[in-house]
Amino acid sequence: MANSLARTARRDTGGSRSFVAVITCLAVAASAAISLIGVSAPASAAPSESRIERIVREGPTRLAAYVHSGSMDKTIKVQLLVPRDSDGPRPFLYMLGGLGEESEENSIWLIKTDADKFFADKNVTVAMPIAGNGSFYTDWQRDDPELGRYKWETFLTKELPPLLEARFDGNGSRGISGLSMGAGSSLTLAARNPGFYDSVAAFSGCYTTTGPAGQAYPRGIVSAFGGNPDNMWGPPNDPDWAAHDVLQRSGGLRGSAVYVSTGTGRSGEYDAPGYPGNSNPTDRQLVGGAIEVGSLWCTRNLQAQLDAQGIPATFRYEDPGTHSWPYWVDQLHRSWPFIDAALN
Predict the structure, then answer these.
(1) Is 22:217 a contact under the CB 8 Å cutoff?
(2) What is the pLDDT of residue 15?
(3) What is the model's pLDDT at position 8?
(4) TM segments (predicted)?
(5) Three-class DSSP category at 49
(6) 35-51, pLDDT tens digit by residue?
(7) 3-class DSSP state for residue 63?
(8) Measured distance CA(322)–CA(271) in Å, rounded
(9) Which bin fits 181, alpha (ψ -120 to 50), beta or left (φ > 0)?
């Protein structure tokens, strides 16, 4: 049953067509409406040494770095986009995907967007790690019998940047961005590591991990891939859930340039029958719309929290806008001037 759910979840790696994502995000939306009117796994082994094993060229401006993670004791493929004019030090932008990757060889960003072409003339090196399914880009408390060892926060903040930025002439300036699951993870990583990222951008995410609604989404996603959510941040009352709640750790975003976008859930041109690549308009309109309503609620709560604390941030609300790739392609383009100003 778990494998069947995982296959269902993999149909859309941004998170818009997963059965579990539908159920859990509808739970978030339901909570918004109301507000408005474990099995343990073996302990982790001692870490090994992190290192770049090899670099492979995949195109004129695309490389692949195979990086051994000491904390996870496995090799992670990280695809890199470098500018055509690559002379001199430059910033790094780390880009996180959604639920899981469609391919073990290519980042979902390269499959679903024009990132390869878009960044070719930009003064930045883009790093796109191909992550494990339902990882939430976080350090799990315990190894999971089905999903293995996840130590993604350690990898993304302590192991990978020093290796890549030394090898590819980083200038010490870095940003992080993500969509759907990766949106919440991007803000979580920035909030938990104050000052590490000069910019952070999040598209169509949710930013609370406490309470029934806040835990429903991550627990549902982990379960969809056959994992035990208690292996991630513990049982529901474990303080580790609050420790990864952006609203509760929002002070850690102070000093970083923050860009957050979401749609309203209302269907638009991209969701219409016959639009290129839209093979299931009903799915995109109903399911993608419902999930984006949940993201809208989460984003409004985040804005209220940052406003209350006087933390500067740019919020963009797209109407129409569903939980679908064409809107994220737009946000990739629209967010770049903001990210560029912070990095350069």
Answers:
(1) no
(2) 45
(3) 36
(4) none
(5) coil
(6) 333 334 444 455 689 99
(7) strand
(8) 8
(9) alpha
Q: In one letter, which amino acid is 329?
A: V
Give, rounded to a whole angstrom, the gap between the first and last alpha carbons of the chain: 49
C-alpha to C-alpha distance for 83 and 20, rounded to whole angstroms: 38
pLDDT of residue 85: 83
pLDDT of amino acid 46? 54
Q: How far apart are CA 44 and CA 47, in angstroms?
A: 8
pLDDT for position 16: 40
Q: How far, in Å, are 63, 191, 263 from residue 197 at the CA level?
A: 23, 9, 25
Name the β-bridge partners of 199.
Answer: 175, 257
Q: How far apart are CA 81 and CA 116, in angstroms?
A: 7
HSE at residue 25, side-chain half, CA atoms within 13 A, is 31
Confidence at residue 34, expressed as pLDDT on a 0 to 100 scale? 30
Q: Which residues in the chain land under pLDDT 70?
A: 1-47
List Cα–Cα distances, 146 to 226, 278, 283, 304, in angstroms.
Answer: 6, 33, 29, 38
- Please, are residues 96 and 186 in contact by the beta-carbon 8 Å criterion? yes
Q: Give me the residues paired with residue 316 across strands.
A: 261
Among candidate residues 145, 230, 215, 161, the one with its CA nearest the CA of residue 184: 215
Tell me what pLDDT residue 88 has: 86
Q: Which amino acid is present at 273?
A: P
Q: Give which of 131, 74, 126, 78 is closest to 102, Cα–Cα.
A: 131
Q: Find residue 94's DSSP bridge partners.
A: 127, 176
CB–CB of 127/162 below 8 Å? no
What pLDDT score does 12 carry?
A: 41
Amino acid identity at 229: P
Q: Is 175 exposed, middle or buried (0-12, 13-18, 19+ CB in 10 A)?
A: buried
Q: How many CB atoms lie within 10 A of CB 33?
A: 11
User: Which two tokens mark 133?
Assistant: 């399914």
